[in-house]
Specification:
Distance between the termini: 29 Å
Strand content: 15-25%
Bound molecules: glutamic acid
Largest sheet: 3 strands, parallel
Structural class: alpha/beta
Shape: globular
Radius of gyration: 19 Å
Helix content: 25-40%
Length: 273
């Protein structure tokens, strides 16, 4: 069976060498298998994403010689769809409003593991919730993790080079599925869109592997198919430090302006990989 894979960057800066490696990994897998390669722009975080970065993504990829099938999907244009998915989880009794001030900050970041939320707002009574809502206090929506995990049962995923692995979302606690400032979250959108776009193989960096357990859980709860996963190692610089946006000189744009060709960028990737 043919595969569909994707590259799903967040436009919080110009694409750098690490993005190029990720995009190429997915693109090569898809082209080799005569499958589909999709481009999705994950731009729901209005405070961190910028239109100029989003517009630069297709341009930078095309310069590298990467092409994609179907129209580019921009998540910010589909908030109503994510709202519908949230509504389904809410109807299952799996969500609760959280008025805590740190909600929507650290907990909704796709990278890194934050301490699990203590569950303070899970214990609010209906009257307390209604009173806070009437006062217009902003709130996030959190997943009741214990209940959700019980409902979903045991979860596992297929990691390409490793085979079947157990997924355990419990340590993440009550993750935020709708932020205070955006009625959605990375986890919800990625799961919704991978299913909608028929993604059968998720290719992405090793830094997002942990989040896979949450994604498996949401797929099970929403009755969506589970794609297979291929997490690739992150590029590092000569000192072993992970390449990140702060290395401005390493953006594809900067390299192009400095006279590099797509071929020399790809050679660099082989050297770094
Ligand atoms: N948008 C996420 C990021 O830029 C990646 C999402 C994914 O590949 O699942 O880190």
């Amino acid at each position: 069976m043919s595969i569909t894979t994707r590259f799903a960057p967040s436009p919080t800066g110009y694409l750098h060498l690490g993005h190029a490696a990720s995009a190429l990994a997915g693109w090569k897998r898809a082209r080799k298998a005569r499958g589909r390669f999709l481009l999705r722009i994950e731009d729901i975080d209005r405070s961190r994403c910028r239109a100029e970065y989003a517009d630069a993504i297709p341009e930078d990829l095309a310069w590298l010689g990467i092409d994609w099938d179907a129209e580019v999907r921009r998540q910010s244009e589909h908030l109503a769809e994510y709202g519908e998915a949230l509504g389904r989880l809410d109807a299952m009794g799996l969500l609760y409003p959280c008025f805590c001030t740190r909600a929507g900050i650290a907990m909704s970041a796709p990278h890194g593991k934050d301490a699990a939320y203590a569950g303070t707002c899970r214990h609010l009574s209906g009257t307390e919730v209604a009173e806070r809502m009437a006062r217009g206090l902003p709130y996030a929506l959190r997943l009741d993790m214990d209940r959700a995990a019980r409902q979903a049962g045991p979860l596992r995923y297929h990691e390409e080079a490793e085979g079947w692995l157990a997924a355990d979302p419990l340590p993440f606690g009550d993750v935020v599925l709708a932020r205070k400032d955006v009625p959605a979250s990375y986890h919800l959108c990625v799961v919704h869109d991978d299913a909608l776009q028929g993604v059968s193989l998720v290719t992405r960096g090793e830094d997002l592997r942990e989040a896979t357990s949450i994604h498996l859980l949401l797929q099970a709860l929403l009755g969506l198919p589970h794609p297979a996963y291929a997490h690739h190692p992150l590029l590092t610089d000569a000192s072993g430090r992970r390449l990140a946006k702060r290395d401005g000189a390493m953006t594809l744009r900067a390299m192009r302006q400095a006279g590099e060709t797509p071929e020399s960028v790809i050679r660099r990737l082989h050297a770094n990989g």
